[in-house]
Amino acid sequence: MVQARKVHAGEWEDAAAMLAALDAVRSAITIFDARGRLLHVNAHLNYLFRSFPPHRGLIGRSYEDLIRLEIAGGEIAPSELAGGAQGFIAGRLAQLGEGAFLPRDICLADRRVVEIKARRDRAGHTVLLWTDVTAARAQMARLQEAVAMSAEAFAFFDAQDRLILANDLYAHLCGVKALPQLIGKSFAEIAAQVARDGRIVLDESPDAWLARRLKNHAAPAAAITLKTNTGEAYLVRDRATPDGGRAMVFTNITDKVRAESALAEQQGALADATAEAMRQTNYLADLATRLDEASAKVDSAKTTLLRTMGHELKTPLNAILGFSELMQTLAGTLTPDQVREYAGLVHQGGCNLLKMINQIMDLTKIAAGRYDLHRAPLDAGGMLWLVRDSFGQRAGQRGIEIDADRCPVGLMVDADETVFTAMMHSLVDNAVTFTTGKRIALSVTQGAGGVAVTVADDGQGVSPDDLARIQQPFEHAGRSSEHSKGAGLGLTLVKAFAELHGGRLELDSGAGRGFRATVILPPAS
């Protein structure tokens, strides 16, 4: 029994020594029992509230009694009592409620700030810790003022990564109207809200951007660039602080980004201009080379053309001069039949010469852009029936049949009637004159490219290698003895007339499989 009392006495002495040591703590400590009566208070409470009686004399009082002593002693700042003493007391007592132990700052009349923290144990005892935080709060106030005045956006997060301090510009960047809406939220919550509200321009999905942003935020230090939907750009520097929190600074770099973009655009434009200049230089060099080659070809072609024209013009002239001289020399001895024969040959030579001259004049007008078309809707099939009738007798004399059964009436083309007739006459004339076969087929068909008018014969045909050549002036297919049958301008003129209408001439032939000429013209609307 004696030993047990000694242990009890020792424990009591240790507890008393511990309570006495609390007087040396630089914070006031108050302990209330389950009934709300003060069990213990240390001496620092008298330092905080100089109007209080000695702290030992407060034992047994309630927390509300202490609050009323504060008010009665003039310790509390008028701003705290603006809502009335009862409201102030009720707010202080609410701190002791279940689950409501958040720290509370009390502003004193002498401008000091006291922070009160409350905790309750399982036995119902409540411990209040009163700390003078004037210096800390003043430092925080100065920081808040500096942050608020800054032209940059600031945000500070605590060790639990919750926002504790920021300025209005940060709230604006986050897309909220009032900063208090963000205070206390975690960085992950704020970043998720920003990623999905469209305020920030993203070059990836919101989820991908959020994952990358959280990864950067977890690094000791990181920097990223954000662009808003209003065209602003910000450099975000995100760094860990010594206390385990985070500090973020948003610097407006809009002008810098715009300048860099403008410079990049100018560099791109300069590169494009340089490339274009090089292309133009190469083009001009190539053009100069081709002009030199074309000039040489023109000189050669001009010489060839003049020589060929001279030969083609001499042929009918020789016939005209030869037979007219013969008629003059033998005028007294020629019979009427001989005169008619020679006069017919002179007349034919004159017609051939006139035809050649007219063809040359038409080609010259077309080349100079002075040939005027008088276009109107024409029935292509009906026109081919008329052409067939025009050549029926001549074809019959050569034992040639002209078939126009595939020329339906009603397929209309947009063409000059005189020119269309001349083209068809030229193609049928060529077929009747040069074919070695016995049948010429005329046809008109409607296709996607326009109305196709075709003249085809079943003669020996033309070599495919000659098809391009015979479309040139004064060129002929076959033997040179056939030159007397034409000047070699028919296909050239047909091709020019077709292209003048916005159409084209297509030739198809081969040895032993006839000759086909097709003029494709635009349909009448």
Word description of this protein:
It contains 13 helices and 17 strands. The protein is α+β, with helices and mostly antiparallel strands and 525 residues long. The protein folds into 4 domains: 118 residues, Beta-Lactamase; 112 residues, Beta-Lactamase (2-Layer Sandwich), CATH 3.30.450; 79 residues; 150 residues, 2-Layer Sandwich (Heat Shock Protein 90). A 5-stranded antiparallel sheet has the order 2-1-5-4-3. The longest helix is centred in the middle third of the chain and has 76 residues.
Descriptors for this entry?
single chain; 525 residues; alpha+beta; Beta-Lactamase; five-stranded antiparallel sheet; 13 helices; disordered N terminus
Topology readout:
Layout: H1 2-21, E1 28-32, E2 38-41, H2 44-48, H3 63-72, H4 85-93, E3 104-107, E4 113-120, E5 126-132, H5 134-149, E6 153-157, E7 163-166, H6 168-173, H7 187-196, H8 206-218, E8 221-227, E9 233-240, E10 246-252, H9 254-329, H10 336-368, E11 375-379, H11 380-397, E12 401-406, E13 412-416, H12 417-434, E14 439-447, E15 450-457, H13 490-500, E16 504-509, E17 515-521
Helix pairs in contact: 3-4, 7-8, 9-10, 10-13, 11-12, 12-13
